[in-house]
Amino acid sequence: TVPRQDTHVQLTRLYVSHFLSKWGDRMWEFAIALLLIEIWQDSLLMAAIYGLTSTLAIVLLGSVVGHYVDTHARLSAVRWSVFLQNAAILVCMITTVAIITVGNTMSAGAYYFCIAVIMGTAATADVGALIGTLAVERDWIK
What we know:
Layout: H1 4-39, H2 45-71, H3 74-102, H4 108-137
Helix pairs in contact: 1-2, 1-4, 2-4, 3-4
């Protein structure tokens, strides 16, 4: 058996890790909205489309994500979640920097392709966050 003090330390680490993860998720949601407003300065349309895209991705993929978390090892699901989030955020940020720096010289097709990549990868990062949340919080209700 694990001594009670070790269990307390492990739970404290789990709660701190979960808090920092959720904080990072909220900071990402805030930052991507600000970046989209920077790209499209005349309107909040891009921020609204991001919100819609993200919500639709979570609604449409929620049952698939839940099934994945239920059928795979919890640690594997958390690792996949972290990888998916970080990869999606990396691609999103590279595309965002590209569109902010050279967006004026892009063709219309390339510009809208970059916007689609930003929306898709931002929604993918949100789905990754959902995987992590479900994997960590799955048994907290009991």
